């Protein structure tokens, strides 16, 4: 059985267990929402059309998620006027899972909404385990790599000789010390030369 419903200025063809995204309606995840604007009912027999809606028909749905759609860029421009405006818009949406299509004024049963969320949770748990497993494998690989590099560095130091490396470091430290006093003496001599020039 299927139904054509109208909500948010749009029409949707729905069947039980379908998941649709509609304009935002009030409700928290897990709540049951009643969509009473049923335009058409179809199934095994002839379709029933409404004028404008089918009397006594209703579609019950469970709120899966409240979210926002993809960003739409709104750009306005007036040529030769120096007017340009850019804005972004994200439409607020509600994801619904259709639980029942009701006729003859029946009310939705809350029991119909409970089994499927339990299945989705069980489906998420294996996915979480699968994500955790590669992370665990990657961590030991990273730890092993630095351990291999450390012996290689030690071997290089042994070949080159441990005494040569500290000597180079000491020489590098002494070089800046020699340059600094030379600059200081030049700075002291400059004022001394200028002073006698002013007296004469």
Automatic annotation (TrEMBL):
Keywords annotated in UniProt: Ribonucleoprotein, Ribosomal protein, RNA-binding, rRNA-binding
InterPro entries in the cross-refs: bL21-like (IPR028909), bL21-like_sf (IPR036164), Ribosomal_bL21 (IPR001787)
Source species, domain of life: Bacteria
Residue spans of biased composition, Low complexity class: 110-119, 129-149
GO terms of molecular function: rRNA binding; structural constituent of ribosome
Basic residues bias (residue ranges): 170-200
Gene Ontology biological-process entries: translation
Chain segments carrying region Disordered: 100-200
GO cellular component: cytoplasm; ribonucleoprotein complex; ribosome
Sections of the chain in a coiled coil: none
Basic and acidic residues bias spans: 154-166
Quaternary structure, from the entry: Part of the 50S ribosomal subunit. Contacts protein L20.
Functional description taken from the UniProt entry: This protein binds to 23S rRNA in the presence of protein L20.
PANTHER family in UniProt: 50S RIBOSOMAL PROTEIN L21, LARGE RIBOSOMAL SUBUNIT PROTEIN BL21M
Family stated for the protein in its record: Belongs to the bacterial ribosomal protein bL21 family.
Name assigned to this protein: Large ribosomal subunit protein bL21
Organism: Methyloceanibacter caenitepidi
């Amino acid at each position: 059985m299927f139904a054509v419903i109208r909500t948010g200025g749009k029409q949707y063809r729905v069947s039980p267990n379908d998941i649709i995204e509609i304009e935002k309606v009030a409700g928290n995840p897990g709540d049951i929402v009643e969509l009473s604007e049923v335009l058409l009912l179809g199934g095994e027999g002839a379709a029933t059309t409404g004028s404008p809606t089918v009397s006594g028909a209703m579609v019950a749905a469970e709120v899966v998620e409240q979210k926002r759609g993809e960003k739409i860029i709104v750009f306005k421009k007036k040529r030769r006027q120096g007017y340009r405006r850019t804005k972004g818009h994200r439409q607020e949406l509600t994801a619904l899972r259709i639980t029942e299509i009701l006729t003859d004024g029946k009310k939705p049963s809350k029991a119909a909404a409970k089994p499927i969320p339990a299945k989705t949770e069980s489906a998420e748990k294996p996915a979480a385990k699968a994500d955790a497993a590669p992370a665990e494998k990657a961590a030991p690989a990273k730890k092993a790599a630095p351990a291999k590099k450390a012996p290689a560095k030690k071997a290089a130091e042994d070949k080159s000789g441990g005494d040569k490396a500290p000597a180079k470091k000491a020489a590098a430290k002494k070089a800046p010390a020699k340059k600094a006093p030379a600059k200081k003496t030049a700075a002291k001599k400059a004022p001394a030369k200028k002073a006698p020039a002013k007296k004469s």
